[in-house]
Write a structure and sequence with these properties.
about 180 residues, alpha/beta, six-stranded mixed sheet, elongated, 2 helices, Immunoglobulin-like, single chain
């Protein structure tokens, strides 16, 4: 009976206290949309950091090359409507896609629900599908990329993991303390 209560207390406490960290980890960007207006620049960069695309919304002119770079410690990929790179992209891997026609080109990482973004080409009107995108072969080392002018309001992954681990530690401590109390 005591052992059962111990496990129930541990489980419930872990879930309740660890939920904020677990709910935020690995699923999208946990802040407002980050944006980068690269119109007129001729090139743009979208970085993958803390399971988020930075910038999550990038505006470019038709014909602009956009380089996607994984700067995260975990694998990501980028999939759009008939374009992208669905191979595992490990840290420092990159690929470049050139968007020739106006439109909105949404993309996502299939490993991390909520990790989404979009490229807005020109005025954003148009089909926005893979017929108007040319993708260069996957590169194991990133090309030289310009710093993104993205607003970064995201929550770093390290504190999120810390919150989850703290919840587990507190739950375990409470469960052990509850197990040591003896009826008088």
């Amino acid at each position: 009976m005591r052992r059962g209560m111990l496990f129930i207390t541990l489980g419930v406490t872990t879930i309740v206290l660890g939920m904020p960290g677990a709910a935020l980890a690995g699923g999208g960007c946990h802040s407002p949309v980050t944006s980068n207006d690269a119109s007129g620049d001729g090139k743009a960069t979208v970085r993958m950091i803390d399971a988020c695309f930075k910038a999550s919304l990038t505006t470019v002119d038709p014909g602009t090359a956009v380089t996607f770079v994984n700067e995260d410690w975990t694998a990501h990929n980028v999939g759009g409507n008939e374009w992208g790179n669905l191979e595992d992209m490990m840290e420092d891997d990159a690929f470049t896609a050139t968007f020739t026609d106006p439109g909105i080109y949404p993309f996502a990482c299939s490993y991390h629900p909520g990790m989404t973004g979009a490229i807005v080409v020109g005025d954003g009107t148009g089909a926005g599908n893979g017929d108007a995108v040319s993708v260069e072969p996957f590169q194991q080392a990133p090309p030289a990329v310009e710093p993104a002018a993205a607003q970064d309001d995201g929550i770093p992954m390290v504190p999120l993991v810390g919150v989850g681990l703290s919840g587990i530690a507190i739950g375990a401590g409470m469960a052990l303390a509850a197990g040591r109390k003896r009826p008088a």
